[in-house]
Specification:
By secondary structure, the chain is of the alpha/beta class. It is built from 14 helices and 12 strands. The relative contact order is 0.13. The structure holds ligand P1T.
Length: 389
């Protein structure tokens, strides 16, 4: 379908069609897995748009077009993982530059910024982005990147995209929003003024826990050029099979997100009224601090729910996490199947305990990635696990 006509269509239509047209040589409706490392040239420098597969691959190009359309972006660029996408952005900074990032964020992002880029002279501070004054105070003359997650991982805090992106712009810094938890179906940060949108496509975009990948979308010609150069020069690219799987995932993204949101809402409300549960973190609960902001900048509240037990100790939390049958205890999120995760020992273990505590991330927090199963079965599973404490 022509991209001009697709531009006016809804996200469900874009998810199915954007970036893809029937294969010109065979008519194959689905974009083939172009399993090739190189492309024939009829004379030196004369080719059909592809020279070498580290630089471009048609299956990857289809996925890049698809993700760009979903994020209202001019450009999409795919990487071998979410952290590779983050790595490429931070690599564009220089020694002496400073990053302000959310203090509630994926532990691997913290590890990358502090432990990988710190020794190269790129410093980073992690602050509570739900307080705009705190962010303003953290910005230094050498702050070049504002790294935003919303909803955050794992406390699902919702922060003000429009205000934060405007603050970065005024300061002359780039705003990058990790949109992994929301997916473009629920939130499109470029529309709120972000310079860059980042995804771990491993999560909702892929949607089936069978592929690792990352992406950056942008409207900036300058950032497109810088990141394309890094894709070619550093080579953290996804293979064609991975791109095919992710492209297959995005086709059903809209309907999956509807079900993730529905199931998570029902579960969050159930847990909020459960006698064994102390606190529930979910943007769809009217009692949740970020609820009103989520209504403004999101088109749904997402599939991620975190909670603390009333009997708030690690033995009880461990018992619950070891007792579910439908929820699988595992890292990651965003797949069709429900997962349960213990941030303190799993996804956020690389953040020092004192910093986790200062950010409000308790060692007893349990995080749920609510899947698309029958919600009554998910509730029964949680109830029988909670019965054990
Ligand atoms: O795993 P990878 O595709 O490299 O993506 C990293 C990443 C980036 N951003 C966010 C918000 C993430 O949640 C992740 C990965 N997160 C998990 C594995 C997790 O269970 O939280």
């Amino acid at each position: 379908m022509k991209s001009e006509s697709l531009n006016k269509m809804g996200l469900g239509t874009k998810a199915v069609h954007a970036g893809q047209a029937p294969d010109p040589t065979t008519g194959a409706v689905m974009t083939p897995i172009y399993q090739t490392s190189t492309y024939a040239q009829s004379a030196p420098g004369v080719h059909k748009g592809h020279e070498y597969a580290r630089v471009t691959n048609p299956t990857r190009s289809a996925l890049e077009g698809n993700l760009a359309a979903l994020e209202s972006a001019k450009y999409g660029m795919c990487f071998s993982s979410g952290v590779a996408a983050t790595d490429a952005i931070v690599r564009c900074l220089r020694p002496g530059d400073h990053i302000v990032a959310s203090n509630d964020l994926y532990g691997g992002t913290y590890r990358l910024m502090r432990q990988v880029f710190g020794p190269f002279g790129i410093t980073s501070d992690f602050v509570d982005m739900s307080d705009l004054d705190v962010v303003k105070k953290a910005m230094k003359p050498n702050t070049k990147l504002l790294w935003i997650e919303t909803p955050t991982n794992p406390l699902v805090r919702v922060v003000d995209l429009q205000a934060l992106c405007a603050m970065a712009r005024t300061h002359g810094a780039t705003s990058a929003v990790d949109n992994t938890f929301a997916s473009p179906i629920l939130q499109r940060p470029l529309e709120w003024g972000a310079d860059l949108v980042v995804h771990s496509t491993t999560k909702y975009l892929g949607g089936h826990s069978d592929v690792v990948g990352g992406a950056v979308c942008t409207n900036s010609d300058e950032w497109h050029e810088k990141l394309r150069f890094l894709i070619k020069s550093s080579g953290a690219v996804p293979g064609p099979m991975d791109c095919f799987l992710t492209l297959r995932g995005t086709k059903t993204l809209q309907i999956r997100m509807e079900r993730h949101c529905h199931n998570a809402q029902v579960i969050a409300e159930h847990l909020e009224n459960h006698p064994k549960v102390g606190k529930v973190y979910y943007p769809g609960l009217p009692s949740f601090a970020g609820h009103e902001l989520a209504k403004k900048q999101m088109d749904g509240f997402g599939g991620m729910v975190s909670f603390l037990l009333k009997n708030d100790n690690i033995e009880a939390a461990t018992r619950v996490m070891s007792s579910t049958h439908v929820f699988t205890l595992a890292e990651s999120l965003g797949g069709v199947e429900s997962l349960m995760n213990h941030p303190a020992t799993m996804t956020h273990a690389s953040i020092p305990a004192a910093e986790r505590k200062a950010a409000g991330l308790s060692d007893t927090l349990i995080r749920l990635s609510v899947g698309i199963e029958d919600v009554k079965d998910l509730i029964a599973d949680l109830d029988q696990a909670l019965e054990k404490v």
